[in-house]
Design brief:
Blueprint: H1 2-48, E1 50-60, E2 66-77, E3 80-84, E4 103-107, E5 115-125, E6 131-142, E7 147-154, E8 159-166, E9 172-179
Antiparallel strand pairs: 1-2, 1-9, 2-3, 3-4, 5-6, 6-7, 7-8, 8-9
Length: 184
C-alpha cells in the first residue's frame, strides 16, 4: 500500500510539472512573437517618415527627472515637424513673455530649408548572439525664435530618447515611446 502511495505521488508531481513547462515555452514564444511584431511595426513607422514620439519623462540639464502627466509629443510627418514639448530649464535670450519654447510647427518649403532631416538605422550587438536595430535621427528645425537640434534615438522595441539643444536655451532630454500618428 505504501509503495502504491509513493508511486501515485510521483506520477501526480510529474504530470503537474510537465504541462507547466510546455506552457512556459509556449508563453515565451508568444512573447517573442509580439516583440518581433513590435520591432517590425517600429521599423515600418520610421521608414515611412510619419510617426509620433509620446514623451513621459523630461530630464532637464539642472534638476531632477520630471514625470509628465499630460500628453506631450513630437510628431514627424515627412516634411513637417510638430513639437509639443514642455521646457524646464534656463533660457538665455528669449522674447518678452517667454516665447513659444518647444511648441511649434515647422514646414519645409522649397524657398526656405527650415527643416534638415538625417536618419541612420544601424544594428548593434547587445548580449550574447543577439542583434537589435537602433535608429538615430537628427533633425534641425529653424523657427523665428531659435534653432533647435533634435537628436533622437529609437530602440527596436519602440522606446525613444530625444535630446534637444538650442542656441538660446539649456539642453533638455526626454524619453518616451514611438507610435503611429493619430488619424484625423
Amino acid at each position: 500500500m505504501r509503495r502504491l502511495y509513493i508511486i501515485m505521488s510521483i506520477l501526480t508531481v510529474a504530470l503537474t510539472v510537465l504541462p507547466s513547462d510546455a506552457r512556459d515555452e509556449q508563453r515565451k514564444t508568444r512573447k517573442e512573437i509580439r516583440k518581433e511584431q513590435r520591432m517590425e511595426e517600429v521599423h515600418s513607422l520610421l521608414t515611412s517618415g510619419r510617426y509620433e514620439i509620446v514623451v513621459s519623462k523630461a530630464f532637464p540639464m539642472s534638476g531632477r527627472m520630471i514625470n509628465l502627466t499630460s500628453k506631450y509629443s513630437l510628431q514627424v510627418r515627412q516634411d513637417t515637424l510638430v513639437s509639443n514639448l514642455p521646457y524646464f530649464g534656463r533660457a538665455y535670450s528669449i522674447p518678452y513673455g517667454g516665447g513659444d519654447g518647444l511648441n511649434f510647427e515647422v514646414v519645409n518649403s522649397e524657398e526656405e530649408q527650415n527643416l534638415i532631416y538625417r536618419s541612420d538605422i544601424r544594428t548593434s550587438s547587445v548580449g550574447k548572439d543577439s542583434s537589435r536595430t537602433d535608429s538615430r535621427i537628427s533633425i534641425r528645425a529653424v523657427t523665428d525664435e531659435d534653432v533647435f537640434d533634435f537628436n533622437i534615438t529609437v530602440y527596436a522595441e519602440g522606446g525613444a530618447n530625444i535630446s534637444v539643444t538650442s542656441n538660446q536655451r539649456q539642453p533638455i532630454s526626454y524619453s518616451g515611446e514611438v507610435r503611429a500618428l493619430p488619424q484625423k
